């Protein structure tokens, strides 16, 4: 009777493993939304816990069969053979579910990381847009133009590392068929805005550089003119002080 019960337990264990494999490993998952992906991750975590909890039952079966083998070698030997098959299948099931759970957790982590990088770069784009807008309607003053140019150039020196991460993470998920529609839409919108703002910012940078150069040249010309006028004023004052007749002055002084 003991052997019959153990044989029944082994059969039930094998049946449970077959059902678990069908439910958790052979089902085709399509992750078209973050909610579906997150639910799949949670389901695989529960599956892993469920499978690992059966380890106690497997150990009890193993101990009981060993004990039976010492008392009734003939029955114990047959059950030991069946037990080895169950143990192999159980270990395989554990490994496969652990692997799938780890894979899904990595995929979810990849998605969250992608969102974080998109948030960072979107904040940078917002800052860039603000700096570009600040270059409009500037007062016609050298300091104001120079400050606006330096501020814009500072934002444009933003490294490209985050955009590289966005491209690689997005492509990895899309290649796996995971959230591909959502990610493609997000990347398309981000890249379009990035290209538009980058081109606009560079154009404004060039325009400000040209405006600054023109203002500096004008300032230099005014400074030279002012110095020349000051020298001429000094000479004229000297002539008047010395009471020199106008016809005795050089032509340019007259």
UniProtKB/TrEMBL annotation:
Coiled coil is among the record's keywords: yes
Query: Which SUPFAM superfamilies does the protein's record reference?
Result: Spectrin repeat
Q: Which domain of life is it from?
A: Eukaryota
Keyword list, A-Z = Coiled coil
Coiled-coil segments: 3-64, 208-242
Q: Identify the Pfam families for this entry.
A: Spectrin (PF00435)
Name this polypeptide is given = UTRO protein
